[in-house]
Request: fold
Amino acid sequence: MNAPGQLAALRSMMLKEVRQTVRDPRLAVMLVVGPLLQLTLLGFAVNLDIEHVPTVVADQDRSAESRAMVREITAGDAFDLAFATPDAEHAMAAVTHGEAPVALILPRGLAEDLDSGKATALQVLVDGGEPNRAVIAQNALSAYAIGHSLQLARQRLSARAAALERAPRLPTTTVVPRVFYNPTLDSQIYFVPGVAATLLMTIILAVTAMGIAREKEVGTLEQVLVTPIAPSILVLGKSLPYAGLGLLDLALVITAGAVVFDVPLRGPLSLLALGGVLYLLSTVGLGLLVGTLARTQQQAFMIAFMVILPAIILSGFMTPVANMPPWLQPFTAFDPMRHFVEILRAVLLKGATFTDIAPQLTALAGIGTVLFASAIRSLHRSLA
Amino acid sequence: MLRLRRRAAEPEPEPTADLALEARDLERAFGDNRAVAGLSLALRPGELYGLVGPDGAGKTTTIRLLTGLITPDAGVAFIAGRRVAPGSSETLEALGYMPQQYSLYGDLSVHENLWFFGKLFGLSGHAMRERRDRLLEVTRLARFGDRRASALSGGMYKKLALACALLHQPRVLLLDEPTNGVDPVSRRELWDLLHEFLHEGMAIIVATPYMDEASRCQRVGLMHRGRLLAEGRPDELVRAFEHETLLLHTDDRDALEEDLASHDEVLAVSPHGSAVRVVVRAGAAEAFRRTLPEAIRLEAVAPDFEDVFLARVRDAETASGVGGPRG
Reply:
């Protein structure tokens, strides 16, 4: 068949894919409603900001000072009073039974000891089952204790200074942090790019892989393969429509991220689009590869699942790559999701330029080309 | 792709002139199973060939080898004078293929399926519309143009599949069990359609397990365990049959059939109404008669195509020392 013929075959192949997608309500939902719903759910659920930790308080001192301390601790966003009990054992039981992750015990004689200038201690019981929350709760209470001590020290000093008729002097050092790109340390702004990359990979890989596997399973591929369509045209026809849908999904997710989570868009859209196209080269290529390896749709789904999970873990979306064991870190370079997450964060949050993200773009182009070429090769081989 | 080319020095095999389809010593194994074991075929334009054999005889593998969907371990095939190779567009353009299983898009309409496969064969505009309308007319599917393929009956679906395979006017048509799951009326229609296209010079191979369909072919090949046991015109194969066919009338058919299974001289046993139809080895009829109880009445009848086939398979199994179930 001549070149115009192949081009016409490509057009009708793409038209057929679009028709089938539109006619399959499950697929349409998966491609449009799915990303929005998942972005919203994941965006809200995947939240590292630890706030409003339920806290049990056992105030054994029952003094004006102890009551004031409890008020101050539970007044902020960090801790919510779950319930108060006079019994320290009861508070401890609440933590061990999982009723509350934190218990605060104010010992008897606290006010007296403070008044007489003795060192005092607040006892804090923390459920370490969730280390992140435990560490943050611990730090918040330590910061409170230091602040409280400083305040007491200042009061004493002021009183003495007044008696001596001198100005009080208390030298202190504090940290004044200035956080770039995400000044309020909002973890959703950090997570939305990761969620976008994950969604795009999951959906496009699954849809492409299932598309090929379905033709095999149903038997239509056999009929297509006895036509003179070139294998590369067949692959293009089956992947271009999904790549287009993928770009649409990307736009959808970024818009939703901006509207729902106030994720900024500081860099140029064209860079995002370029990154998206290169990322889709990888995901569609991976999908085609999985589809040619699998014999049924179910197999394709299983293989896709086994590919997606490590891709997410190695992407650095959940835990930074720098925190992974050194032997594992080199493998993340082969994960297209890692590069795309970095591109999204750089462009959305930092307003990166082309030169800033050139290494990631190059890596994506390389991985994508290899995956796509392997997919065409594997299809060729499965035909022979 | 890298492929070691052994015997590269040997000259490229040449097709025989004037043949629409030719296969020479095709071999293909799947693991230990020799699905096709040295098979040769030759069809002239306008010839209808029946590839007859039980399930597992290698019919589908043979047809898929001819399409180029699978490659032979040995041997060559030519379609319209061109060598069959995977993805060779020259042979594919001359070929129409209708697989045994469902192969059309159920979620596309009759029109859309035809349009899609037409485009994949490089048809366009006027030619496409003309051929589509003609095929819809002869298959009497014109009224169902907008119906989705999944909503068609078995017979209508097969006719649509046939139309899709015929759109590009192939010179060779390969049909793998085209009447499987089709009602008798549609079956008849399908065969009438084939004869129509035959007149236009198309060469057609029909693989079928049904003996009655074999007799509709101009030439048949009896296929068994990857080989052709016999080949020729159906009536000639029956005429040349040396064994004898008998009808045994009995009151207890089941008991008699069981009894016959142990007879070495009996090549085939099949039920025939209340009687039992047997094929007895040539010259052994008299001896066989004496072993039967008095109450059973014997009647000599003319052999038919099924007798020929069953006996040939039995002969082949005896020759290769394979027991297998008798009958």
The mean pLDDT of chain A is 86.
